[in-house]
Inverse folding.
């Protein structure tokens, strides 16, 4: 009976997601359609219409690309032993360039010894790119984002703490809902994808947030002992 419930819940989830995708893609499609018609009937130069059509196409591309992350085959690639620390270093190096443009500093506080988990490197990078990007988006300009790694016997905990606008409890409730966004050009898919990836890695994710003060996302992943060939 329990399994049946789970199956039907999943179907509802898939239906909701499909409805969301249809809606999100229909808007730019309607707009592209409209501007194409205008261009057909207009004798004047239509340069400006090209810009709009191009940006609407980019929007569809962004949504589709984010969704592709979700549909990538899971499971069989997930079980590779990985040291999480160099993965975090790489992501931070990548994001520091964007952060510097907003005068935001990303600081990293990690243990000296390797921290081993089982996972798929690109999916894990995606998680920390999403969290760092959200942290940066939440900060006007200047400030610090802390990436902290702590380990227990069983878990590696990675937290990403920003000094941004924070979230209300209503916002926190809605996190992970497909297409929930408060940003003008957001997709509202980042957190859903992040939760999905962490769940598939046997981990969990926690959120603490105070409006006007900042947000901390903590990712917990099962820790493994150092692999023999490492
Ligand atoms: P997007 O970034 O495209 O909006 P996400 O799923 O990544 O999509 O985030 C959904 C919403 O959650 C954001 O629009 C924002 O309102 C809120 N959010 C996520 N991370 C943070 C954060 N670090 N600080 C404040 N709000 C956040």
């Amino acid at each position: 009976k329990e399994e049946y419930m789970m199956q039907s819940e999943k179907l509802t989830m898939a239906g909701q997601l499909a409805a969301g995708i249809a809606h999100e893609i229909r808007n730019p499609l309607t707009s592209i359609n409209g501007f194409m018609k205008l261009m057909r009937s207009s004798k004047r130069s239509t340069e400006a219409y090209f810009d709009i059509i191009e940006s609407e196409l980019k929007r569809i591309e962004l949504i589709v690309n984010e969704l592709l992350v979700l549909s990538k085959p899971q499971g069989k690639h997930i079980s590779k032993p990985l040291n999480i620390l160099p993965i975090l270093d790489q992501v931070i190096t990548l994001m520091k360039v964007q952060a510097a443009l907003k005068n935001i500093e990303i600081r990293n506080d990690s243990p000296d010894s390797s921290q081993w988990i089982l996972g798929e490197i690109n999916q894990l990078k995606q998680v920390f790119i999403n969290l760092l990007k959200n942290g940066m988006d939440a900060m006007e300009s200047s400030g610090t984002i802390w990436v902290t790694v702590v380990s227990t016997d069983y878990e590696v905990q990675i937290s990403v703490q920003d000094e941004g606008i924070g979230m209300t409890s209503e916002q926190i409730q809605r996190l992970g809902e497909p297409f929930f966004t408060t940003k003008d050009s957001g997709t509202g898919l980042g957190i859903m994808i992040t939760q999905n990836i962490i769940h598939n890695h046997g981990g969990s994710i926690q959120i603490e947030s105070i409006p006007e003060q900042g947000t901390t996302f903590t990712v917990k992943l099962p820790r493994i002992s150092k692999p023999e060939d490492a």
